Amino acid sequence: MRSNNVYIQYIYSALLGVGFCRKFPPGFKFGAATAAYQVEGAWNVSDKSASIWDTFVHTRPEIIADRSNGDVACDSYNQWMKDVEIASELGLDFYRFSLSWPRILPNGFANKISEDGVKFYSNLIDALLERGIEPVVTIYHWDLPQNLQDLGEAAELALQLMGGLYSHPIFSKKGGWPEQIERLVAEKSKQEGFSKSRLPEFTKEEKKIVRGTYDFFGLNYYTSRTARRARGEVVGPWPLSGAPDIDVIISVRPEWPQAGTSWLYVYPEGFRKLISWLKKQYGNVEIFITENGFLTSGEDLEDQARIDYHKEHLEQVLLAIQEDKANVVAYTAWSMLDNFEWSDGYRSKFGLYEVDFNDPARVRRPRASAQFYKEIVQAK
Questions:
Q1: What pLDDT was estimated at residue 17?
Q2: Architecture of 2-17+29-173+268-379 per CATH?
Q3: What percentage of residues in the chain have a pLDDT greater than 90?
Q4: Spans of all domains in the chain
Q5: What distance separates the 2 farthest-apart alpha carbons in the chain?
Q6: By CB neighbour count within 10 A (0-12 exposed, 13-18 middle, 19+ buried), where does 334 fall?
Q7: Which residues of 90-122 are buried (b: 16+ CB within 10 A; e: fewer)?
Q8: Sheet holding 29-33, edge to edge
Q9: Mind listing the pLDDT tens digit for each residue in 8-43?
Q10: In angstroms, rounded to a whole number, what is the distance separating the alpha carbons of residues 90 and 375?
Q11: Which residues contact 297 (CB under 8 A, 6 or more apart)?
């Protein structure tokens, strides 16, 4: 362990050494994140109702890579104090977690509030505060109550929660949709035989109401894509749902390393480019990096590839802050724990801490990246 600590310190020195102007700015915060369905388990405990993910994994297990589910996951519903202790051991400034609305509102509405559900989150928040860790609460992380899905409200909710295109009405000075997007969608709609654009137009009153209604810009970054104009090719909807509307082909560069999955290509420079683009578009808005992380598929606690990923991406954050003058205020590592990674099941491991999903006790063990991240948090 002694030699490992020296090595970790060397990595830290390299991160903040020559070319990176010493340290993160005063007040910069470091945290880590999880999400309710991915870690809590206890899917049918007390009066909790089913979420859409409970229904999905129980009725279509073949869609999940390892046919697993989140019924137990990390068992964080019962082992939440261990998670708090891990957050404290890492020295986190904040811990981001999400609320499971089926646990709080079993009917999907406020006519019934679960005392057990409220108590669970209240205890978690109190324990974090007692240790000087700020709770950062994600209001919704994909586990919609099945009751609301059955009522047909899910599509509207999904629209309200989509990002990307919908940043412009809030953060831009002018408000409304980006003019180029409005024009392209209108042209495409006309070609498709619509009498008017499929993109609803903002009224002056709506622009005024929406514009500027933010506290910070929450940014997730894992990977990058290249973009070019289509040259007669059929434009598919993946990985950018709006690509057909703007006739753009999305791809990657062959030299980018791939992180053991079909979608995560490592390109740290893209992080800085994105942050700097946000500054150029929206001015000195506070940028809160809400997720950034790397997956592995093995069981090795010596996860050098994850250390390299976080190191290289943090270097780009420093460059964006110090060279581009971006107002980045916080960084969140995804994830504090290995967890249920949606359609990948438990095959994709993002955790600074390993979780043994074959052990009923769901034992947590720190990876080398946990020590690396702890060093960064301590020294800043």
A1: 44
A2: Alpha-Beta Barrel (3.20)
A3: 64
A4: 2-17+29-173+268-379, 175-210, 225-266
A5: 70
A6: buried
A7: bbbbbbbbbbbbbbbbbebeeeeebeebeebbe
A8: 134-138, 94-98, 29-33, 328-334, 287-292, 217-220
A9: 333 444 454 434 446 899 999 999 999 999 999 999
A10: 8
A11: 260, 347, 348, 349
CB 142: neighbour CB atoms within 10 A?
16
CB contact set of 192 (below 8 Å; sequence gap of 6+) = none
Residues 290-315: what's their mean pLDDT? 95
Paired tokens of 207: 């622009």
Q: Where in the chain does DSSP place strands (E)?
A: 29-33, 94-98, 134-138, 217-220, 226-229, 248-251, 287-292, 328-334, 353-355, 364-366
Q: Is the dihedral of CA 195, 200, 203, 207 positive or negative?
A: negative
Rounded-to-integer distance, Cα 99 and Cα 102, Å = 9
| Rounded-to-integer distance, Cα 37 and Cα 139, Å | 13
